[in-house]
Specification:
By secondary structure, this protein is mainly alpha-helical. It is built from four helices and no strands. Keywords: Membrane, Transmembrane, Transmembrane helix.
Length: about 100
């Protein structure tokens, strides 16, 4: 699932932003419902909690995507290092061979 999210262009930053937006929306919803107390305090608490429940999910997905991004970066760096080392070794072998 994480790989599919990455292939569709989602990054860890998108998920972190969604998590912070969920927290802000939760607080805003709670405050707005609190101002309209005619419907009861339990309704206010339920809306705030419902909106806030998404935040940990978004943050967890952000962490999973970040780990995937780091793993992809290591593979790229390792591949480039190997290529560079192979070129250097090939160049050294040419220089040390008798002409």
């Amino acid at each position: 699932m994480i790989k599919m999210m990455r292939e569709n262009g989602l990054t860890s930053q998108h998920m972190y932003l969604a998590g912070f937006a969920s927290v802000a929306l939760s607080a805003t919803t709670w405050l707005m419902s609190n101002l309209n107390q005619g419907r009861g305090m339990s309704r206010t608490d339920h809306w705030g909690i419902f909106m806030g429940e998404w935040a940990p999910t978004f943050f967890a997905l952000g962490i999973a995507l970040r780990l995937e991004e780091m793993q992809d970066g290591r593979h790229d760096m390792m591949g480039k290092s190997r290529e560079g080392m192979e070129r250097q070794m090939a160049g050294n072998a040419r220089m040390s061979s008798p002409a």
